[in-house]
Write a structure and sequence with these properties.
With about 70 residues, this protein is α+β, with helices and mostly antiparallel strands. The chain has 3 helices and 4 strands; from the N terminus they run ββααββα. The protein has a 4-stranded antiparallel beta sheet. Helix 1 (about 15-20) packs across helix 2 (about 25-35).
Amino acid sequence: MAPITIGGERLVSVKEFGEWTGKSEGSVHWMIHTKKAPPSALIGGRRMFKESDCARWLEHQFEAEEQKVSA
């Protein structure tokens, strides 16, 4: 399947985001429900993330962890 893009930016599925984070699709859906995931939208009936939002979210997770270690 060809990547889905919007405005030149690649969109990431719940499954792919789960693979990146080691989470099941159900866990990712729970993260979305509890507002602990990057922003997402329903695109053609599928929940999708912008790749840049995922990258920022992942970077933030590392920054938060670094702050814990240095505290």
